[in-house]
Amino acid sequence: MHPQPGIFGLGTVEHCYVELDLIGRGDGRDLTAALAMLSGPETTVAGVGVVVALRPELWASIAPGDAPAEARSFDELEGSGLRMPSTQHDAWVWIAGGSRDAVFDSTLRVVRGLDGIARVASEVTGWLYRHDRDLTGFIDGTENPSMTEAPDVAVVPEGPGAGASIVLVQKWRHSPSFGRLATDEQERVIGRTKEDSVELDPSVMPPDSHVSRTSVQEDGEELQIYRRNTAYGGPTEHGTMFVAFCREQRPFEVMLRRMAGVDDGVRDALTRYAQPLSGGYYVAPSLQALSRLARSTD
Q: What is the pLDDT of residues 167-221, one digit of tens each?
């Protein structure tokens, strides 16, 4: 089983993320079939990378044998003074390319092609900032697995949902107050040096730093996810589109609970300077699963 190639398609500088809701009382098969035609070698949208994903319960109802075990929609999470809202929708499409006009034109074709089937619930334009940094100025994704290791982290290896990925999508708005901190204060919030992303020494690492809260060891191994974040917005309001893939949902849930301080009351310091505005889980099916559905619908 092969995952959708856009998950690993690095080097694209322009991005658009669209969340969709079904129109009417359909079972979602028409929407899923239309999305299936967007990804893979026979894509109807040329010149850009496309990843399509469905609400876990919707995909499981249409293709139960291709649904990852225990995948489910995003539930609102509330911890130590922080609320992570659920804005779950029925489907998610990520279009990425080398120019804004190519991404714009392709996204417009996708939306028009779904007319009468689904409505656009959310649309966000993303872009790369200084190659590999987010809008705090820190390098983003330092803990990402290498490209040779990424498929093992991001893709269900076998059994139900083989070749699929579980996707977490969150929009985080940055506060301008972070930029007013001195560099050493920013580094204590993140847990890394700003210039070269070296992890702070344990003797000076704050227990509420972003690194401390999101680096989780279980049975001697660190829980891993594969991040594909981008920046969004303009000078007056901006932030991070957090997009990550994993073979299972649990690592996401562990990390988010720790960030919010749900179990121990220790809240991630970064969340005092960044606010989650949305949250949704989706399943990005394998190419074979999408192809089967497209053929059966035809």
A: 999 999 999 999 999 999 999 999 999 999 999 999 999 999 999 999 998 988 8
Please state which architecture CATH assigns to domain 5-297: 2-Layer Sandwich (3.30)
Provide the CB-side half-sphere exposure for 222 (13 A, CA).
11
Residue 101 falls in the annotated catalytic set: no
Q: Residue 19: which of 190, 196, 214, 171 has the closest Cα?
A: 171
Residue-wise over 166-205: b if at least 16 C-beta within 10 A, else e? bbbbbbbbbeeebeeeeeeebbbbbbbbbeebeebeeeeb
Torsions phi, psi for 143 (to 5 deg): -85, 5
Catalytic residue among 90, 140, 208, 268: 140
204, 191 in Cβ contact below 8 A?
Answer: no
